Amino acid sequence: MKERLDIIGILEKITEKDPRYKADAYLFVLGGLNHTVSRFEKPRHVNGKELSEGLRDYAIDQFGPLARTVLESWGVTKTEDFGNIVFNLIKAKLLSKTEEDSIDDFRDVFEFKKALDNTVKYVL
Questions:
Q1: pLDDT at residue 71, as a whole number
Q2: Which helix (H) or strand (E) holds 68?
Q3: What CA–CA distance (Å, rounded) separates 124 from 122?
Q4: What mean pLDDT is reported for the chain?
Q5: 87-91, Cβ contacts within 8 angstroms, sequence gap of 24 or more
Q6: How many contiguous H segments (helices) and E segments (strands) does the chain have?
Q7: 32-47, pLDDT tens digit by residue?
Q8: Is 64 left (phi over 0), alpha (psi -120 to 50) or beta?
Q9: pLDDT exceeds 80 at position 88
């Protein structure tokens, strides 16, 4: 019989080692990765820039004008935080990477406040 993956237990261990981010941030990144990959015609590997942009869109879809507030409550305040979370998930063997992937791929992809604060358009 195949062993069940204890994601909650794994995330608890990750957050003990790196308390900067809440477990919800990791669950968000995993869900956002799925959301990002599903936008392509065929599933494929995504790089840090693509994933950061996909996570921005996913946050806006999920939380609307509260997107930045929600992410900040989990410790995520810049795109580099997405990279730290992804690489923690890689270390925990929940994600994988290619030789070309680097945490630097997540650096300064977009300005967090500007990208997430202007999500509501008012209609008069």
A1: 98
A2: helix 67-73
A3: 6
A4: 92
A5: 88/14, 88/17, 88/18, 88/21, 88/26, 89/14, 89/26, 89/29, 89/30, 91/14
A6: 6, 0
A7: 999 999 999 998 999 9
A8: left
A9: yes
